[in-house]
Amino acid sequence: VQLVESGGGSVQAGGSLRLSCSVSGYTHCTFDMSWYRQSPGKEREFVSSIYDENTTDYADSVKGRFIMARSGRKNAMYLQMNNLKPEDTAMYYCGASLAYCDGNDPRPSDYNYWGQGTQVTVS
After folding, report:
1. pLDDT at site 53
2. Helix and strand numbers, DSSP H then E, in the chain
3. Which of 70-92 are b and which e, b meaning 16 or more Cβ less than 10 Å from the residue's Cβ?
4. Is 36 exposed, middle or buried (0-12, 13-18, 19+ CB in 10 A)?
5. Per-residue confidence (pLDDT) for residue 35, from 0 to 100
6. Which of 73, 76, 88, 90 could tie 22 with a disulfide, CB 3.0–4.6 Å?
7. What percent of the chain has pLDDT over 70?
8. In what helix (H) or strand (E) does residue 91 lie, and over which residues does it extend?
9. End-to-end alpha-carbon separation of the chain, Å?
10. Which helix (H) or strand (E) is 6 found in, with range?
């Protein structure tokens, strides 16, 4: 399982960015997906998640500003980040957790996977 992330960058406060993430391989499986972020000297923290098809959950710090949704392709989603603040600056990591697989094809060896991270800088 590989997670492919894109969309990070630099933006001024009040601006917007969209992060995307997709799971490559295992198209017969469904993954719940999430975003976490980590700033220098801080622990990785939860940002948002999507599960049970389209149920979403957000950290209080991003509610009302960030929107997470599936992007049409299976096991692909995006995080629309609006009204960005300097405190949103961090490395953002996409996570995928195996929910279930259909049929008898091989399953992934693990349940949890992480992307390589994409930097978001808000000045």
Report:
1. 79
2. 0, 11
3. eeeeebbbbbebeebeeebbbbb
4. buried
5. 98
6. 76
7. 100
8. strand 90-101
9. 34
10. strand 2-6
